[in-house]
Write a structure and sequence with these properties.
The protein is built from 6 helices and no strands. It is an all-alpha fold. InterPro entries: DMAC1-like_dom, Mitochondrial_unc_protein. Residues 21-44 have a biased composition (Low complexity).
């Protein structure tokens, strides 16, 4: 099957309209009837004050939230953050255990406790971001 370019890929109604340009008048929305005029119906004109009114916030937010994020996107993002948090905890603690003697010998003011707390904080933040990404 040959590949079609975007200008060649037409739907059935486009093909029908190219074959018969008058067929666009036969669409169900524009079909004349006894109660409708034969010309297309235009949208009612809105006044300037009606257009200047803000949209109702609850309906706008619910519409945006509905289209905001799909479940698979949330699941993948959540899995990425959570697994990064788990990996950073596992890797950080393994490296800390491997260098524990060296760190204690160095006499640094940043001992093992503060370093463990930093690893826990980083990994906990990433896991928390994963949970937040999934539920919110």
């Amino acid at each position: 099957m040959p590949r079609l370019t975007p200008d060649q890929a037409l739907c059935d109604s486009d093909l029908q309209q190219r074959r018969n340009p008058q067929s666009s008048l036969q669409s169900p929305l524009l079909a004349p009837s006894a109660s409708q005029p034969t010309h297309p119906v235009m949208a009612p004109s809105l006044s300037l004050p009606a257009l200047q009114q803000p949209a109702p916030l609850p309906s706008t937010l619910s519409t945006q939230r509905k289209d905001y994020d799909c479940t698979s996107c949330r699941l993948m993002g959540s899995a990425a953050f959570t697994s990064l948090g788990v990996y950073s905890h596992w890797s950080g603690m393994a490296q800390l255990r491997a260098r524990e003697a060296e760190i204690l010998r160095s006499g640094s003011r940043f001992g093992m406790g503060i370093r463990r707390m930093g690893i826990w904080g980083l990994s906990g933040s990433l896991v928390g971001m994963g949970v937040y990404r999934f539920w919110v």
